[in-house]
Amino acid sequence: MLNKIVKCNNFEISNNKKIFLISGPCQLETEQHALDIAGRIKEIALKFGIGFIYKTSFDKANRTSLKGKRGAGLDVSLPIFDKIRKELKIPVLTDVHNADQCSIVSKHVDVLQIPAFLCRQTDLVQAACETSKIVNIKKGQVLAPWDMKGILSKTEGAKEVWITERGTSFGYNTLVVDFTGLDYMLNNYSTPVVLDATHGVQKPGGLGGSSGGNRDYVPGLCRAGSALGITNFFLEVHPDPDNAPSDGPNMLRLEDFDKVVGEIHEYSYSNSS
After folding, report:
1. Does the pTM exceed 0.85?
2. What residue spans define the domains of the chain?
3. Contact call for residues 181 and 175 (beta carbons, < 8 A)
4. What pLDDT digit, counting tens, does each position of 150-208 carry?
5. What is the Cα–Cα distance from 106 to 100, expressed in whole angstroms?
6. Where are the alpha helices (DSSP H) in the chain?
7. Domain topology for 6-272
8. Beta strands 175-176 and 20-24: pairing type?
9. pLDDT tens digits, 57-77
10. I need a labelling partner for 202 at 20 to 30 A (CA). Which of 117, 165, 227, 235 fits?
């Protein structure tokens, strides 16, 4: 297994050190909603002694239909990101959708994320890498693990880069998590590899006007990832996912988050001893 240690604020993320979580709701809804979720996730992360970064989106530009809710928007979200970082002392990750957003958003977050559908957009990737922030690139659903080599070649000059596996297309409206692909990336890329277990159970467009999914499979994917040697997990959570504005079917309930993280912790350290 290749390994590079990347520092994110006071935390370290790598492929063979402590567990690291990227977690939060799919999209930013209100300031209080964001603060409440971030605070609860922080409590759970501290309980298990693991690193954590809060994730949420100011704009879900990639919607199944025009009826899909997109988020609070840039002007509303950036001050909230600042508040989470300053008052809760929690680093923040959010996604960007065009090159012009990178320099603006980078002043308010710690990690810029490239969405899976946009991971081959050269201008976007390079603009994100020209900031002073870590860049998390989500592997496109139609890409092979070895295809990420070409994308990583576009990241020259970046502070640091992570790769996130968020599922691979398996026919229409279905994703699967390919653990052989995860193993390939762990052993061929030195950059930290992240398993997105919540988007991995998504069914893109599966509900017709929106995406479906099944959150019941998330804990099993997490345990399997830990058994493989994954230490970095991307988990979307929400206090009421069935009524969330986006990605509700595949988001974990916040009340279940403690148990899922506990299982990741147990499986990870039982396999390292």
Report:
1. yes
2. 6-272
3. no
4. 999 999 999 999 999 999 999 999 999 999 999 999 999 999 999 999 999 999 999 98
5. 11
6. 31-48, 74-87, 99-105, 122-129, 148-152, 179-188, 218-228, 254-272
7. TIM Barrel (3.20.20)
8. unpaired
9. 999 777 667 666 788 999 999
10. 227
